[in-house]
Q: What sequence folds into this?
């Protein structure tokens, strides 16, 4: 019975991942499609020409690079800012704690169109000091990612066993060392989750970016624009590459873990 | 660092400062502009002017409460579905993932690499009327002979669920991962069945993750418009669609603003009720 | 009265001016033309990744072209630019392209957000086809010039249904139930329905609007109309989810699927035009100068060959006739007088009517 239940869970996990990744499979498949016109909707035959001509769509590569740059930066900054806020909220009493807790939820509840348009008004009011483009996009992305990080890290901190920290300090570690060697590793999964969520939010954002990008084009903006006359198969090529690269990087991570385990085992 | 130790009173403020400052400048100030806009009146051609037009809020609630309820309903359903789908998955990664954990987490957000539109186009291919899924469902009579999956409320809720899955799965994972396995072992040593161990040990300890996941899914889902726009008919329009329409097509910026604040108020109200029900410590620590 | 020669030069003449009314010889072209357009609206060579006519423009006149295909929806683009423009700020573009069958083009002119063309720099304006000379929203062509036109009609999947050539069929033929979409811009959809009702879409009354609106609402409520779409109808159409839909002529050409057919409905179709416009703060002289260049038949021929929409420049067909007679006779690109007589323009006054917009948005679900 335990055997069945044990493998039932794994079977479910496989199904769940299939559900999550089936659009990726379609994207990868259609990167090999050979459509006669601009629309890549129905299968017309196998070809490698989209891959050979991977850079054939002007602006696509730049859009992808821009999206990746912003996503990485936004994820790191938002996660740092959000983690600090989460630490403050969970571990300290201070004036305005209730208000801060509420404040965290409001950006998530704000419809994107008014969020983006209002932020644009701010930038416009700052006049010629502000140039719409990379920095305004980045600022916007960090802004809306912070809340997600706070909620995620808070969940971990709430159930955090303080006695571990107390033990470390009893053993002579100061606050900073305790934080570095005890707290941080234990909340690392939450920080990683925050990074991943922020990255996902940033790389996929359309509405807020649309308002605040000036004449810069991110990947979602590019795709939305191209969709007017058909998304070129090269978009599928780029999607596939990003997926495979991410997979590859994480495989390296697995190997590094194995190496580490091998050393300490 | 000795400075921090001695001046413990300052620590929280130092931690809060960067993030809150960022939100204050780049969120609260724009929100202020929005609030001001929500009290304006006039029309686009002539121009809008501030006039304490509380009537905008009255109109919002009066005319659009149906859309508001529908949005809360769809978001609620999607959150529930996401929870049911994600929990076993997060559990599996947390308890069985081993050194593959991080890779599996990245796989969860992988769909976001290809942008919303591409994901949805892919689903539209899979769920097409002439596609295999619909054909099978028709054959087993789950769908009528002319039934379809796309352009229905099912498609809209399914779309919202799918697109918010990582926001449920990741916090769930974070909570589950932190559970000390020895607690479960102890329970089983004390003759609990694995089901009992799950219900009495794992589930309660994972509640902070459940709370976080439901918040990160439900709150943004209420304001969603794109799933209803691409996967639904006029009957599935959500409050987000109304706000889009007011902003882009009717150029009614005060109306859009008032409607947005109405939605935000409704959501915050629900969070307050939620916090009361589950106990505020789970929310605020 | 005698002008002092040196005086004018010393008084700062000669720098590029943005609103000089005359004197092409003293005006200087800007170093860059910032041009925003719709996707696939400029001749492009995949192999070299260049836009030939834009490169030729740069080579001939020394003006670089910062060409961005960042307009994909009139309402969305307007929603973005109204922020800066309403605050008197520039959007950093010299040339943009908006469609005349939505309210936004007229609104740009009405709100004073469009610069007047420097007609002295556009002698080729005489090549503009007669039918485009006095549109309702810009009677003397002071602010806009057509880029390309297109037609709205009915597309159907010949594998799934018999030919659908009328709105009556589209909205009331039960065999199509749930497999029909219509466009979410009312000028396109209601324009066709008005023609089917025997009303004139170029002169809309409250009654004729209501008649058309009620008919569409009924079809939507009954489930005949599956969805109201932008150009995302192309996906479901190719995949066989749809049997017929309201659609734009150029899309069907691009889908390149022999089973999909496009026709202007029997009672008449709609024609719309994407217009070039200089937003406030743009460099009027350089933008006007480009417009003149684009209105040269030889240049227009290259653009039209690629875009395959309806060109507004006289003489283009003759140029293409010499190199590609088949294209020159393509009805969708060079419609004959007969075809043109069956397509109609939308009433520009009606576009501005907020009540019509509200009623339409209500049918769309919002």
A:
């Amino acid at each position: 019975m335990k055997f069945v239940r044990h493998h039932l869970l794994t079977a479910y996990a496989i199904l769940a991942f299939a559900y999550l990744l089936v659009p990726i499979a379609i994207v990868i498949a259609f990167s090999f499609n050979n459509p006669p016109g601009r629309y890549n909707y129905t299968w017309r035959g196998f070809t490698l020409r989209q891959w050979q001509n991977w850079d054939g769509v002007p602006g696509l590569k730049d859009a992808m690079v821009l999206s990746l740059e912003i996503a990485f930066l936004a994820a790191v900054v938002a996660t740092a800012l959000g983690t600090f806020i989460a630490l403050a909220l969970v571990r300290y009493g201070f004036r305005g704690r209730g208000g801060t807790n509420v404040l965290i939820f409001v950006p998530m509840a704000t419809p994107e169109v008014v969020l983006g348009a209002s932020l644009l008004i701010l930038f416009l009011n700052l006049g010629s000091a502000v140039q719409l483009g990379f920095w305004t996009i980045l600022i916007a992305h960090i802004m809306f990612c912070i809340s997600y990080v706070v909620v995620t890290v808070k969940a971990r901190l709430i159930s955090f066993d303080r006695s571990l920290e107390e033990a470390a300090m009893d053993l002579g570690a100061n606050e900073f060392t305790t934080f570095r060697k005890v707290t941080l590793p234990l909340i690392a999964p939450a920080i990683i989750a925050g990074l991943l969520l922020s990255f996902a939010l940033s790389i996929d954002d359309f509405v807020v970016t649309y308002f605040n990008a000036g004449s810069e084009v991110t990947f979602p903006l590019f795709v939305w624009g191209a969709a007017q006359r058909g998304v070129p198969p090269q978009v599928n090529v780029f999607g596939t590459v990003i997926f495979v690269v991410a997979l590859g990087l994480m495989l390296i991570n697995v190997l590094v873990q194995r190496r580490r385990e091998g050393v300490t085992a | 660092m000795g400075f921090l130790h001695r001046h413990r009173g300052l620590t929280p403020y130092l931690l809060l400062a960067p993030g809150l400052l960022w939100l204050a400048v780049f969120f609260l100030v724009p929100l202020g502009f929005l609030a001001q806009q929500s009290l304006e009146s006039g029309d686009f051609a002539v121009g809008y002017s501030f006039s304490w037009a509380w009537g905008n809020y009255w109109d919002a609630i009066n005319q659009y409460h149906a859309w508001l309820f529908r949005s809360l309903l769809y978001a609620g359903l999607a959150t529930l579905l996401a929870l049911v789908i994600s929990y076993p998955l997060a559990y599996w990664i947390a308890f069985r993932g081993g050194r593959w954990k991080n890779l599996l987490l990245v796989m969860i957000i992988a769909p976001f690499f290809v942008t919303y539109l591409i994901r949805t186009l892919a689903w539209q291919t899979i769920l097409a009327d002439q596609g295999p899924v619909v054909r099978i469902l028709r054959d087993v009579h789950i769908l009528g002979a002319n039934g379809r999956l796309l352009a229905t409320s099912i498609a809209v809720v399914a779309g919202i669920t799918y697109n918010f899955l990582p926001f449920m799965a990741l916090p769930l994972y974070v909570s589950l991962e932190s559970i000390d396995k020895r607690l479960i072992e102890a329970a089983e040593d004390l003759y609990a069945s694995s089901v009992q161990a799950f219900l009495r040990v794992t589930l309660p300890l994972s509640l902070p993750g459940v709370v976080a996941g439901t918040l990160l899914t439900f709150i943004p889902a209420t304001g969603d418009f794109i799933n209803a726009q691409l996967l639904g008919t006029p009957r599935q329009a959500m409050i987000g669609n109304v706000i889009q329409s007011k902003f882009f097509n009717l150029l009614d910026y005060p109306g859009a603003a008032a409607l947005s604040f109405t939605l935000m108020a409704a959501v915050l109200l629900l969070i307050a009720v939620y916090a009361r029900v589950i106990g505020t410590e789970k929310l605020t620590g | 009265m005698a002008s002092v020669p040196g005086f004018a030069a010393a008084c700062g003449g000669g720098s590029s001016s943005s609103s000089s009314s005359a004197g092409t010889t003293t005006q200087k072209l800007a170093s860059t033309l910032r041009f925003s357009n719709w996707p696939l609206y400029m001749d492009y060579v995949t192999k070299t990744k260049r836009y030939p006519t834009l490169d030729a423009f740069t080579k001939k006149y020394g003006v670089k072209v910062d060409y961005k295909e960042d307009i994909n929806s009139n309402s969305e683009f307007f929603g973005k630019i109204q922020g800066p423009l309403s605050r008197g700020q520039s959007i950093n573009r010299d040339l943009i392209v908006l469609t005349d069958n939505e309210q936004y083009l007229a609104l740009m002119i009405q709100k004073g957000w469009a610069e007047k063309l420097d007609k002295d720099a556009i002698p080729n304006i005489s090549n503009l086809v007669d039918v485009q000379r006095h549109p309702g929203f810009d009677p003397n062509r002071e602010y806009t010039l057509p880029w390309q036109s297109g037609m709205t009609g009915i597309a159907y999947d010949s594998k799934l249904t018999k030919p659908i050539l009328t709105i009556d069929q589209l909205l009331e033929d039960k065999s199509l139930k749930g497999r029909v979409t219509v466009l979410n811009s009312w000028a396109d959809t209601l324009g066709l329905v008005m023609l089917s009702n025997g009303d004139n879409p170029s002169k809309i009354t409250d009654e004729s609007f209501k008649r058309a609106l009620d008919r569409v609402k009924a079809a939507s409520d009954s489930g005949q109309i599956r969805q109201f779409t932008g150009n995302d109808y192309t996906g479901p159409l190719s995949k066989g989810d749809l049997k017929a839909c309201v659609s734009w002529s150029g899309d069907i050409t691009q889908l390149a699927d022999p089973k999909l057919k496009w026709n202007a409905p029997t009672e008449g179709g709609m024609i719309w035009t994407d217009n070039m416009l200089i937003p406030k703060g743009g460099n009027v002289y350089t933008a006007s100068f480009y417009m003149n260049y684009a209105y040269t038949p030889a240049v227009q021929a290259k653009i039209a060959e690629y875009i395959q929409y309806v060109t507004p420049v006289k003489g283009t067909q003759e140029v293409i006739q010499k190199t590609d007679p088949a294209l020159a006779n393509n009805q969708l690109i060079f419609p004959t007088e007969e075809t043109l007589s069956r397509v109609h323009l939308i009433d520009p006054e009606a576009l501005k009517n907020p009540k019509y917009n509200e009623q339409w948005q209500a049918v769309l679900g919002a």
About this structure: Chain B touches chain A through 101 residues (CB under 8 Å). Chain B is about 75% helix and 5% strand. The longest strand of chain B covers residues 40-43. Chain B has one domain: 63-284.
